Amino acid sequence: MNDLSMLDLILKASLLAKVVLLLLVAASGVSWYVIFSKRGLFSRMASSAEKFEDRFWSGGNLADLYESVRKNQETEGLAAIFTAGYEEYTRQQTSGRAAPEDQLAAVSRQMRVAQVREVERLEGGLAMLATIGSTSPYVGLFGTVWGIMAAFISIGAQKQASLATVAPGIAEALIATAMGLFAAIPAVIAYNFFTRSVESMENRYHTFAEEMLGIIDRGLRHARQA
Predict the structure, then answer these.
(1) Neighbours of 118 (CB within 10 A)
(2) What is the Cα–Cα distance from 98 to 114, expressed in whole angstroms?
(3) For the chain, where are the E strands, in sequence order?
(4) For every one of its 226 residues, what pLDDT tens digit does the chain have, with 9 covering 90 and above?
(5) Which domain does 200 fall in, by range?
(6) Within a domain: residue 218?
(7) How far is CA 66 from its chain centroid?
(8) Which residues cross the membrane (predicted)?
(9) CB of 147 within 8 A of CB of 125?
């Protein structure tokens, strides 16, 4: 037993145990890929949201900001929500048939649709993290049970219960358990972190949409009184 390393245990493990370990390694790899990609996405979205809000409140008019957004080809985050609202606003103004309240409601619907799309994009991949975090321990547990069962079968076949007989199977089982936890723990932590980040960005999007609707509402009221 002293000559056995972890690599030796894995190489000498049963086929089913190797399949379990391979699945857990693959799940861990997918988990870390999602974690790094989502981390980059949230960092980019938070930075772009700050910059866009600074431009939005800089004192310029909505038309100039819209032209700037189109020129820079900004198609995500607050820029996407703003574009959806402004384009619907100009459509309503061009038609001129609807009452101001109906125009505002139409703008609100378009911004809400854009907001939902942006939130859905932020949530992409989180279901995968939740699945890995919830199932990996059970997959590892399955490998653990299989290893212990193999150890007892070995004892029964040899009709003796020495440490040398039991230890490899138990060690194989513990490796499966450890690998299951290694895959699950980062996935669960990342899922909770990104879920809170999504909620924060969703609140930010909602607040921006309400502020823009307030500006448009004031403009419609002013035009009606003029």
Answers:
(1) 21
(2) 22
(3) none
(4) 445 566 666 666 677 778 888 999 999 999 999 999 999 999 999 999 999 999 998 877 889 999 999 999 988 999 999 999 999 999 888 876 678 888 899 999 999 999 999 999 999 999 999 999 999 999 999 888 877 877 777 677 666 666 566 666 677 778 888 889 999 999 999 999 999 999 999 999 999 999 999 988 888 777 666 5
(5) 6-225
(6) yes
(7) 29
(8) 15-35, 138-157, 169-194
(9) no
